[in-house]
## 1
Amino acid sequence: MKIVTSASELDEGCTFIPTMGALHAGHASLFQLAKRKSDFVVASIFVNPMQFENSIDLDLYPRTPDQDIELAAASGVTHLWLPTQSEIYPENFPKVSAGPIGENFEGANRIGHFDGVVTVVSRLFQLVRPARAIFGEKDFQQLALIKELAQRSFKEIEILAAPTIRESDGLALSSRNVRLSQSDRTTAVVMYRALLAAKEGKDIASSLSAMHRVFKEIPAFKLDYAQIIDEDNFAIATDSTPNQRAIIAGWLNGVRLIDNMQMSPALISAGAR
Ligand code: PAF
C-alpha cells in the first residue's frame, strides 16, 4: 500500500472510500468490497472540521493513525491518501449546501453537519475523480445526501452502499463506540433491540410504539428521534410507502449514537409482513 499526501499522486478512475480514520471492521468491509470491484482502491483519512458542531466534539474524535495504516493495508487499500487541510480547503473553496434532506433528523440535531459533509465529499470527489465511491448504510441520511450530490454534480461517479456491520450482540460498528464505557457499551444495544422491535410491528403505528417502549425501559439512553422514513426522500413514511427504514439517534453519557434498519417488506396491503 502506498501512502500519499496529495491527490496529485493519484490517477483517476479508482474505487474510493473516504473516511475520518479510527478505522474498524466496518471500514474494512468497505475496503474489501472495493477490492472486489477494482485493483485501484483509494481510501482517504481526513477528520473534517466542517462537519463537527463544536471544537470539543472535534477534539474528542478518536485518532488512531498507526492502527489505521495497518487495517487499510490488510484490507485491500492500494493507496492511502492523507490530505492536508490546505489541499481540501484552499482559500475561497466552494461551500456546498446539503439542501432539504439535510435539515431533518441528524441535520436538525447537528446544525451545519451535513453542509460540512457534502462540502468535504464534493472536494474529495473533485480531487480524486474516482469511478465509484463506497459509503456505509450506517450513516443512512449521509448516504442519501451523497447520492443526491452525485446526481446533481458528479453523475460520472457511481455511489455504492455497503451494509452496516454489527457486533455479535447487534451494536452497529462506529468509530464513536470506543468512547463508551463498558456498561454504556452494553446499554447501547438498546438501539438494535428497538430496531428489531420495529420490524415486528404490523404497521407504522405499532412499529413506532414498539421502538418507544424499548427506549422507555432504558432512560440512560437519551433518545433524540425514532422514526420510520421513506428511504427514497427521507419523508416520514406512511403505511403505503414501499421502501421504509427505521432510523434512531440519541445520546449515551455524552456520546452520540445512530442506527437504522430497513423495514421489509413494505407494510402495504393489510399490514402483512
Ligand atoms: O462518514 C464519514 O466518515 C464522513 O462523514 C465522511 C463521509 C468521510 C466525510 O467526512
## 2
Amino acid sequence: MQMVSTLADLRAARLALPGTAGLIPTMGYLHEGHISLARRARAECDSVIASIFVNPAQFAPNEDLAKYPRNLERDLQLLESAGVDLVWTPTPEGMYPPGFSTWVEVEGLTRPLEGAARPGHFRGVTTVVTKLFSAVQPERAYFGQKDAQQAAVIRKMVRDLDFPIEIIVGPTVREADGLAMSSRNAYLNAEERKAATVLFNALSAAQQAYQHGERDGDVLRGILRHVIDLQPLARMQYVSAADYDTLEELQTLTGKTLLSMAVFIGQTRLIDNFVLG
Ligand code: PAF
C-alpha cells in the first residue's frame, strides 16, 4: 500500500494505478463501517484509494475539530488489510492554502436536520469532497448510510455538477447492542456508552409502531422523543420523520421515509437513522 500527502504525489500515484478506481473519503479513526466500504470497493474496483483528512471546513468554531480522535498508524494497518492500494493524507495547508475562497454549496437539501443544527457544515463537506473527487477522479466513491443526509447531498451535488462518479452508500454498521459505529463513540465514558443505545432503541420503537401500521409523522416523532426523554444522560437536538428524497417533514408517511435524530450523550453529539418503507 502506497501513502502520499501532497497533491502532486497523489496525482502521480493515481496515474500509475490500473483500471477503475474506487475512493473512500474518510476523516480517519476508522471503524468497521469504513472498512466494510473499503472491502466493497476492493471487490468492485480495480484500484482502491482512501483519503484521511480531518476537514477543518466542516467543523464550526464551537465543535470538536481540535479533539477529533486520530490514530494514523492503526488506520493504515486497517486499510492495508482491507486491500487498499493508495492512501492520501492531505494537510490542511495543502487543501486550503492561504487565500482559499471557493466553496461548493448544495441548496435546499442542506437546509433541514444536520444543516439546521450545524450551519456551514455541508458547505465544508461538499467543498472538500469536490476537491477529493477532482484530485482522485474515481469511477466510484463510497459513503456510509449513517450520514444519510450527507449521502443525499453528495448524490445531488454529483448530479448537479455532472461528476462522472457513481456514489455508493453502504449500510450502517452497528455494535452488538445496536449503537451505530462512529469515530465519535470514542468520546463516551462507560456510563455514556451504555446510555448511547438510546438512539437505536428510539429508532427501533418508532420502526415497530410503523410496522404495526402507524403512519402519522407526529406520532412517530413523538415516540422517538419519548424514548430519548427517558434516558437521563441524553439530550435531544432533533428528531425527524422526513421524506427520503426531499428531507421534508411528513404529516403522513406514504413512501420511503428517513427517521433520523441527533442526540447529545453528555458532551458527545451522536446521529443515527433508519429508513422505512
Ligand atoms: O463522512 C465523513 O467522514 C466526512 O464528512 C467526509 C465525507 C470524509 C468529508 O470530510
## 3
Amino acid sequence: MTADLFADDPHAPKPLRLGEEAVLLRGFALGEADALLADIAAITSRAPFRHMITPGGKSMSVATSSCGDLGWVSDLHGYRYASADPLSGQPWPKIPKRWLDLAERAKQAAGFAASSAPDACLINRYAPGARLSLHQDRDERDFGVPIISVSLGLPAVFLWGGNRRADPYRTMALSHGDVLLWGGVDRLRFHGVRPVTQDALDRRMYRFNITMRKAA
Ligand code: MD6
Ligand code: FE
C-alpha cells in the first residue's frame, strides 16, 4: 500500500490496516462532515428513517434509510435490496455526487484497485442505546467492490470479528469523520456496533453511519 493520504499534512494519520483488504482512514471525511450531515437530512426528508422489522419479528434499534438504485430493506420475509422505498413506493433518492467522490478518493487512499462505483447506500442512525448485533453483509452480488463506511456524529465501539460468528472479535472506536473500507477476503467478516453512549457534555444526538456498496 502506497497511499499518500493527506500527502501535504505531516500530522495526518496513516491508514490503519485491519486486515488484508480492510483499512481504516481516521478523519478522512472530517473536512466535509457537515456537508454529509446536510445531505443525510435532505435524503431522509424524502425517505425517512424508520425502524425496520427483522425476519425474527423484532424492531431494530437502529433507524435506517437508503439512497441509490437499490436500498436495503428488512421485514418478516427477510433482508433484501429493493429499488423502491416500501414506505412510499417511490425510487430511493440518488446517492449524492459528493458521496461517490468521497468513496472514490477513499478507495484510492486506502490502496484498493479501481472498481465500480457503489449503487446502494444504507444510512443508519443510532440514538443513544441503539446497537447493531454481529452480522455479515452478504446480500450484495459484487464482493469485488469494497464497502465504504463513513461514521458521523457520536462515536461508537465497533466490533470486528472473523468469518464465523463465534470467532473472537476486536473492538475499536469509530469517530466522526472516520472512513472504513473493506472488501475481498475481509468482505464476509462478522461485525457490529455496541450500544451507542452519549457523554454528558456531548450535544450531538445521534451517530450516523453511511455504507456504500455495489449491490447489483
Ligand atoms: C455501522 N456498519 O457502522 C454499521 N457493514 O453503523 C456496518 O454494518 C458495516 O460499517 C459493512 C461494512 C462496513 C460497515
Ligand atoms: Fe454491516
## 4
Amino acid sequence: MDKKIIFSGVQPSGNITLGNYLGAIKNWVDLQKDYSCRYAIMDMHSITVRQDPAQLRKRTLDLLKLYIACGIDPEENLLFIQSQAPAHAQLAWVLNCYTYMGELSRMTQYKDKCAQHADNINAGLFTYPVLMAADILLYQADLVPVGKDQMQHIEITRDIAGRFNALYGDVFKIPEGFLPKAGAKVMSLTEPTKKMSKSDENPKAYISILDDFNVIAKKIKSAVTDSEGVVEYREGDETKAGINNLLTIMAAVTGRAVEDIAADYAGKGYGAFKADVAEAVVEHIRPIREKYDSLSGNKDYLVSIYTKGAEKACAISERTLQKVYKKVGFVL
Ligand code: ATP
Ligand code: LTN
C-alpha cells in the first residue's frame, strides 16, 4: 500500500529555535519512516516581513543543512525550496479567489504580525495562509506536523479545500494537523507567557539550535521562573509558566513525562533543576551540531539536494495545478 503523505516547512526568517525544533522538525524526523514526506523551506512566506537579500539566501541554505543535520534523510524524503516550485504561487492565486477577507482577518498570526510591523502591513501578510494552503494542497498531504501556533492555518486550509471540493469534486485531500506530545508550544525564556519566537528582539528569549553550548546553558539558567521554589507542573497556572515551560522542554528532549521529571526535584531548588535542563538540551543538540558542522563547506552537496528536490517538487505540484486549472475553466 502507498504510504500516507506528510507536508511541512519552516520559514528561513532567522535561526531555528528550540521551539521550531521541538514543535515541528523533531516530529518530522520521528514520522519519516512511516510516511512519504515533503519538507520545504518557505522563503516566499518569509518575505511577508522585510528580509535582507544576502541573509535570506544564506539562511535558506543553512536551513536546508539544518533539516539534514536534525536527521531528515534527503534520499528518502523530498527536500526543496518553495520559490523553486512555481506552482505554489500559481495555486495561491487561484485559492485567493476562494478565500474570504473575513476569515483571513481572524487569523491570530496576522493580527500579531500587524502589531509587530505596523509600518509594513502588506497584502502578503494578509494572504499568507492562502499560500500555506497552496503548499499543503499541491502535495495532497494527509498530515501536516507543525507547532500549535500554526493549527489555525491548518484549519483554514481545510476550509478552503472543502469549499473548492464542494464546487468541483474531489480535487484536494483534506489534511490534518499533527502536534507533538511535548513541545507543541515552547514559551519564551524571558516572558514565559509568550511563545518562543526566532524573530524576538531579545536573544535571551529563545534558544537557537546554533547558539554556543555555554550560551544555551546560560540562557536556561537565567530563564524567568517564580519565587515559590517548587518544581511542579501546573497547567494553566500563569505564575508557574516558567517552570511549566522548562519541564515541557525537559520532557520533549528526554521523552519522559513531566510529572516523573518533577518528582526527581522534590525538595530541591530551581538551581539543580535548571542545570539539568541545560545539560539535557545541550546533549540533545550536540549531535545535530556535529552533523551541521560536517555539512558546512559542502555546498555542491546542498546544491544537488535542492536541485533534485525542485525537479521532483515541480513534477508533483504541476499535476495538482493542472487539475485545478482544468476545473476552474482555464484553457490547457
Ligand atoms: P517568526 O518568529 O519568524 O514568526 P517562528 O519562530 O514563529 O518564526 P516559523 O517559521 O513561523 O517560526 O515556524 C516554524 C515551525 O515551528 C512551525 O511549525 C511552528 O508551529 C513551529 N513553532 C514556532 N514557534 C514555536 C514554539 N515556540 N513552540 C513550538 N513550535 C513552534
Ligand atoms: N506558516 C508556517 C510555515 C509554512 C508551512 C507551510 C508549514 C508555510 N507553508 C505548509 C506547514 C505546511 C510557519 O511555520 N510559520
